[in-house]
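Design review, sub-item: ligand-bound model
Attendees: FS, YL, KQ
YL presented the inputs for the phosphoric acid mono(formamide)ester complex:
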Amino acid sequence: MKANVEDSFRKRSLGPPRDRPNRLRCCQRKHHCPLTLAVLDLLPFSTMSNAVQHDLTFPKSWCRRHLLDLESLSAEEISTLLDIAQQLKEMTQGCRHKISLLAGKTCANLFFENSTRTRNSFSLAAKRLGADTVEFSSVGSSVAKGETFVDTAKTIEAMGVEWVVTRHGTPGTPHLLSRELDCCVLNAGDGPHGHPTQGLLDMLTIKQHRGDIRGLTVALVGDIAHSRTARSNIWGLSKLGAHVIICGPPTLVSPRWSELGFEVAHHLDDILPRCDVLNLLRIQFERQRARPFPSVHEYAALYAMNGARMRKAKDDILIMAPGPINRGVEITPEVADGPHSVILEQVNNGIAVRMAALWLLSGANDRVKANPKSSPAD
Ligand code: CP
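KQ shared the predicted structure:
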């Protein structure tokens, strides 16, 4: 699998399936014509003409049923998620077409905080793999009648779901659910603590552009104190061998990060010429209880990525942002929409890493169901 994956990252086409154990085969259409695709969608896989077969090997070493954070994952597990995401992206022609890897299973989105990217991306990831989805929103639900978070999740699980994807303002809520539910639990953001699929999609985007993360200098800039994206990137990138710089105002970047071996900086202009990647984090006004800097204008003057700063950066710098972006605060429109920006590629890669997570967790869960005495690494 490794050779195939390395080829994939270099944007070559996958070769024909080889004889390997544990193989799942899927079909991918060569044609882009919507009419052709519509016709092919009506045909059983075996009768499809012009269809390319790909195989996806379930990694024997994968045994996690939940994706709660990146801190507890090994470098090998993170690499497996990224490799499978890349393969699924190609098998679904850029996350656009449907295959039936997970047909018959249901994914429930339990969101107690707002979301555009993560919620729709999980939903599309499930659908691209043939699964059904249930969309729960706390607004308009029985939470208003006093039902607890855990009872709500258990109620949705009892409807027969394979995965619960949860976003909540309180750190640790997915970890709590993983102890209460039998289905797979995925963290879609728990307060300022973690956002593992965001970290994975950021790393997948870097890998697609640079091939390898090891040795790159990646700066996370902005509101580190309130950013779950920052935490997931910090753990994920450092495990894969990047040099991580944590940059922002002293009120939003604890000096104690340096005790864990990370470089801390308070002046973007000082570190900019060394950076291969900048990930510009949103100022999370909704999570701040005290004003962490004198004014938005001052923050933008010191930390916003703008045209003048781009001229001091490396020629091939990657500009990333998890979104939503505050235009003119962390990033100016000319940079957000400019040639170095990969912000919308990140969004597309979100579907790929979520497809990978759903498939891997479900495979581990199937193993536990087949052999309840086995002990999965949750
Ligand atoms: N990046 C991210 O989590 O965006 P949403 O809040 O729109 O899901």
